[in-house]
Design goal:
The chain is an alpha+beta fold and 149 residues long. Helix content is 46%, strand content 13%.
Length: 149
Amino acid sequence: FDPGQGLPMFSGAELAEFVRLADYVAVNDYEGKLLEEKTGRKLEELAREVKALVVTLGARGSRIFAGGKAQDIPIAPAQSVTDPTGCGDAYRAGLLYGIANGWDWANTGRLGAVLGAIKIASRGAQNHRADRATVEARFKQAFGYSPWS
């Protein structure tokens, strides 16, 4: 469940039901605060109902609540900061890849961070390009290892 900009359209009860029906929840920090306000429940509490609840924090990285624990995921350094439009979507692509491939949350979140760092260096939401070799090289550069090895 990724409510995005549509979150304000729903009541707290509706949002709580969406979370209950989800396996995963992804929000940015603003959406996370709004989700807490509307449902009257803390993110940590909502996270108990799903496999993972992910909060992106922009330049502060991200936090993944899973298995009763919170993991802070660092950013991957960007080559330049040109346009943040689409960075959340790029991060979520990393989440989807990690989930689909059975990765742990630390590697999944770090992949999201790498994809966000690649995206932010390009103007426009979908004008960036990166092949597998580039993503792996950027991952190694940022975190010192490759999750594919």
